[in-house]
Amino acid sequence: MSGILVLAEARGGELRGVSGELVGAAVEIKSGAGGPLTVAIVDHRPQAFVDSLALAGVDQILTVRTPTDHFDPHAQEGAVEALIGQLGPSVVLAAMSVDSLGFAPAVASRAGLGFASDVTHLRWEDGLCVRRPEYGGKVDVELEFPGKVSSLLLIREGVFDPPPSGGPPAQREIAVDIDPGILPSEHLRFVSPPADDIDIASAPFLLSVGRGIEDAADLERFEALADSIGAQLAVSRPLVDSGWAPASRQVGQSGKSVSPKVYLAMGISGAVQHLAGIRNAGTVIAINRDSEAPIFRVADFGVVADMFDVADELAGYLGG
Questions:
Q1: CA distances for 300 relative to 140, 266, 286, 311, angstroms
Q2: Least buried of 103, 156, 227, 288, by fewest C-beta within 10 Å?
Q3: R_g of the chain computed on alpha carbons
């Protein structure tokens, strides 16, 4: 077996950004894995996404049409199993998403593939080696897959950069026999997340606060500040553990990896788990009273000051 199969992901008629990130991850190990880099899109209207998937490093794009216009894990499972059987890839990459979790573990188990979820790093050194967080993000573990000729990996969103657009790769449609009459589940409806549950992973500007917050009531103050400067409010793990903020706002290895253009960290010391979540951030600005805080080692700009004093100055300036 050789080559890499990337499973692009669409939802609600739109290609998800993680699809490009998966290609970026594949490019990092392409030379070691050998063979072509193939991107497959399994959807009711897969042809609509071909142009967006023509990225640098992609050798061919395969389209697979499903019988339903909504996601069905059993249809995806059947299509992916057929693709693996036809292509024989040494590595299969999918997103660490609610969709992929609905079919990928079953595919790996049935085919006897190596499997790892929530992968944050991968490399090829005499074989595939990946890294993922364990024990609630407190440590990283490295995994290898001895004896496995093929492995399926679920890649964490927001970790890898998508490559730029490339020349038009080879393209063909793959016919997979998926009879909608035998699918053992029935789609009822989509339920959207609560309106206040923002996606910090896609926010271009984040104001993130951490252990420097000593009272839950202070969060409202920084949320107002974030609104006034056009940012989304994010938090580090201690505030989630204290029950002061929802997990959807958490940045870090046990939260979300983010890639904003600007990341303003206030009162965050910069534990290694948190820094892992901002490795793809653009400009990092850190404000902390401790001049030795690890966050300053990765910050583009740093201010040694009390976060509340800086917040007051910003609020006064904006108000004036």
A1: 26, 14, 8, 19
A2: 227
A3: 22
| pLDDT on residue 319 | 66
Reported as a single tens digit per residue, the pLDDT across 231-248 is: 999 999 999 999 999 988
Check which CATH number belongs to the domain holding 209 and give it: 3.40.50.1220
The model's pTM is: 0.76
Is the domain of 107 the same as that of 247?
A: no
What's the chain's average pLDDT?
89
Give dist(CA 18, CA 171) in Å, integer: 21
141 and 213, same domain (yes or no): no
Does residue 90 fall inside a structural domain? Answer: yes
271: containing domain: 200-319
For residues 190-220, b (16+ Cβ closer than 10 Å) or e, as one string?
Answer: eeeeeeeebebbebebbbbbbbbbeeeebbe
Residues 27 and 75 occupy one common structural domain = yes
My answer on whether 206 and 295 are in the same domain is: yes
Phi, psi of 37 (to 5 degrees): -100, 110
- pLDDT tens across 155-191, in order? 998 889 899 998 888 999 988 776 555 556 677 777 7
Assess whether 210 and 177 both reside in one domain. Answer: no
